[in-house]
Amino acid sequence: MITRLLHTRYRVTDLEQTTFFYTKVLGLEEVSRHRSPRGSELVFFKAPQSDELIEICKYDASGPVVIGPDLTHLAFQVDDLAAFASHAEKLGFPLSDGPTLTSSGSTIAFIDAPEGYEIELIQRPANG
C-alpha cells in the first residue's frame, strides 16, 4: 500500500532558469542536485513547511518539452499575496491571472514558471 507522497516531477529544457525561478521567485530550498543513471539532470526543491519535494528534470533525449494549456499546476500557500506578487514582478515574473477572491474567502492568483508550467498561489483568510 502507498504510505506517502514523496515528490512530483516536471521536465524542463532550461534547468538554470527554472532553478532561479523556484529558489529566487518562489523561495523554495534546493535540497539536492545530481545526475540519474540514465543521464537526467535532476534538482529537488522543498517548500519551507512541506515534506514533499518537487523534482525538476532536464533530459534532452526525451525531446522538446511541450506543456498543454491547463494541464497541470503546483499550488502553494502564501502569507501575503500582494507582497509576493510585487517580489515576483521585480524579478520579471508578473502574475498571469488574479488575484481573485474565492467563495471560501481565500484569494488566489497564478504565475507562469519558465517552460509554461502554471503555479497557483493561495492566501487563506486570516481566520482560516
Overview of this protein structure:
Helices cover 16% and strands 38% of the residues. The termini are far apart. The chain is an alpha/beta fold and 128 residues long. 17% of the residues are buried. The strands form two sheets. Strands 1-4-3-2 form a four-stranded mixed beta sheet, covered by helices on one side. Strands 5-8-7-6 form a four-stranded mixed beta sheet, with helices on one face. The chain is globular.
The level-1 CATH class: Alpha Beta
The backbone outline, from C-alpha atoms, is globular
Beta-strand portion reads: 35-45%
Please identify the structural class as seen in this structure.
alpha/beta
What's the number of helices? 2
Q: Could you give a short account of the major beta sheet?
A: 4 strands, mixed
Number of domains: 1
Separation of termini?
Answer: 33 Å
Order of helices and strands: EHEEEEHEEE
In CATH, the topology is named: 2,3-Dihydroxybiphenyl 1,2-Dioxygenase, domain 1
Tags for this model:
2 helices, 128 residues, 4-stranded mixed sheet, alpha/beta, 38% strand, 16% helix, 8 strands, 2,3-Dihydroxybiphenyl 1,2-Dioxygenase, domain 1
